[in-house]
Amino acid sequence: MDYHMRVVFSLLLKEIRSNEESTDDSEEDESEEEPKLKYERLSNGVTEILQKDAASCMTVHEKFLALGTHYGKVYLLDVQGNITQKVDISPVKINQISLDESGEHMGICSEDGKVQVFGLYSGEEFHETFDCPIKIVAVHPQFVRSHCKQFVTGGKKLLLYEKTWMNRWKPSVLHEGEGNIRNVKWRGHLIAWANNMGVKILDMISKQRITNVPRDDISLRPDMYPCSLCWKDNLTLIIGWGTSVKICSVKERHASEMRDLPSRYVEIIFQFDTEFYISGLAPLCDQLVVLSYVKEVSEKTEMECCARPRLDIIQPLPESCEEISSDALTVRGFQENECRDYHLEHSEGESLFYIISPRDIVVAKERDQDDHIDWLLEKKKYEEALMAAEISQKTIKKHRILDIGLAYINHLVEKGEYDLAARKCQKILGKSTELWEFEVYKFKEIGQLKAISRYLPRRDPILKPLIYEMVLHEFLESDYEGFAMLIKEWPGDLYNNAIIVQVVVDHLKKDPQNRTLLRTLAELYTYDQRYGKALEIYLTLRHKDVFQLIHKHNLFSSIRDKIVLLMDFDSEKAVDMLLDNEDKISIDRVVEELENRPELQHVYLHKLFKRDHHKGQKYHEKQISLYAEYDRPNLLPFLRDSTHCPLEKALEICQQRNFVEETVYLLSRMGNSRSALKMIMEELYDVDKAIEFAKEQDDGELWEDLILYSIDKPPFITGLLNNIGTHVDPILLIHRIKEGMEIPNLRDSLVKILQDYNLQILLREGCKKILVADSLSLLKKMHRTQMKGVRVDEENICESCLSPILPSDASKSFSVTVFHCRHMFHKECLPIPSTMSPLQFCNICSAKHRGPGSAILEMKK
Hints:
The chain contains 31 helices and 32 strands. InterPro entries: Beta-prop_Vps41, Clathrin_H-chain/VPS_repeat, TPR-like_helical_dom_sf, Vps41, Vps41/Vps8, WD40/YVTN_repeat-like_dom_sf, WD40_repeat_dom_sf, Znf_RING.
């Protein structure tokens, strides 16, 4: 799995963990970091080799491995460790093996000074034996090319061999005088090597050394604690020596800075120290893999001894480093090994790391998603394992999402988290009926059918009816409410309805008044389309769903004789339903059914009247008594709005019950205003209401009666003085007041009369001003209109003789009169004006003002 994907995934998992409630055990587990690498021994042929010999060096190509031993043998191995070829080089230790990038050419050096460079698939070969041990050899990365036939060897000096045009090898000294050459790495056009003093880099293009990186701890023996070199890319070199790590970057020098300096220079971009001695280095994306040699103090002997080597993943920081992971490796014979006995090689293409020791070779691989899931399952982190499998389902090879999910369900069941286990079934089991049925039976065995009941599939897939019936039976035996809930939620076609109905009926025999079971039985009858039985139970229970049932299944024919029951249960809903469905249950039928329940009859007829004043007109006479008995506040509005109730009957009922307001209204409606006013004054003794009544009737005689009745009652006089000013001349009332009569608030009443009078005067003056201004404006407008010219042509006619107003012969003289009203006459057609009134008027317009028909009469004359 790609490294960046793993980083993203780890962040997702951290978010999940932060949202989960964890026990002490799970907190302890989460504190344990997941390893970044996985390890396995390189076996097969390697095991056989290391039983008789010891590994001294190894180099890695993407196609194969090359292993050198202490007995001078070189083995070519496949990636599983199987031997594909064996080469006897020397009787002594092989110090280093080098391969070009193609893997077709190999360089080998040994402790007895032998150096061999040859082609694995060609005949070219170089043999040389030196007089000193040769510690290193490195062939040109592009050795396969004809112009790159170069390699370097290192003993006491660093030699470069180049093939001449005569196919001879020409040596040249690159460096000497600073002790033995301990390590060399060739990348592109750069060669890096380490001797006793430090690390040098040579630019093969310019044949110039571009840097010297001295070693930090000169107290360490360079042969016991050798330098580790590794190119991360063509321009980045990683150096590990003792406990120090340096990351160097080769950069181009600016032209202005060159002078006599090399064209390139080296900058140390990261530098830090580690806790242990470094035996090998390798890059991993932007991190480092470091193989460390560890010493520890034995608890028994209290002496320093060799411990297991460590493989650390380190994140370099500008001034320090962060340890990402650290693993102690159990390699064979680690107690006898020294720092120089360990080597770290890596395969760039696959992120494989080979830890080489004399008796063991361990392969470290980046953990893929299958490994990650294995670790999660081992730590019983099933939720995270399931999520990881879902995210990477296309790349995982070892695991199946279903298997992980089933293991997760089993784990939750074992922990007693039955509800969570049941909830996870929805996601994990999907649409597999076999898996669902298997899990249901498993929950039944542990007595937890209730836990899984809420999550059973109800559509796609549908399980066998027996499964649902088994769950319902479980609830029916112990939880009536839960049983009722399932019946309500589950579609009726999931189970055999008749079987469940019979079981419920059997239980009702033991507890016939159980409302939960009765309600559930009604629902079952509904599923079975036995609506009549369901309706009876609902009405008995007074259940709110009764109206929904009637509407949904059109059960109006079944409720014709149950109207009283429905009204008793919820009169408002019942009336609304009956009125909305008059075509199914007539008004007459409802009124007849409610005959013995007049209070319910009134509720129905009242709402009917509110909807339509004319539909129930034949019951308006009956409604008078019903309103009087059960709803007097609505009697007066009913009398006002109804045009069909008999007034005499209404008056009789109101007088019998002494309903004064209603009687007053009826008397006034029947034209007996004086009796109505008298009742207000005598029965209600309310002058304000009397005045209001007189205002409504706007009858002078009523005002006279009101004044006469009030003249000997000072409070009534006060009320009249306060309200009469705008309808009756107050003087009529004031003249009739007896001298010496004490009238409360008389001064205030007189002041109010004067104020009302002044207000009326002001209103009149204001209206007069507005009227005069409007008249003047209209007069001016009319004058402007009449002053305009009038077009006279051959199309106009004389309004008297109806002939064209202009003569056909234009040479003849003619006389025409045109009035402001646009009517035209021949002068001879107009009557001669009288001597009394020399002004002439339009015959037509003046006739209209005098009355209809007068103009016609004049024309006939």
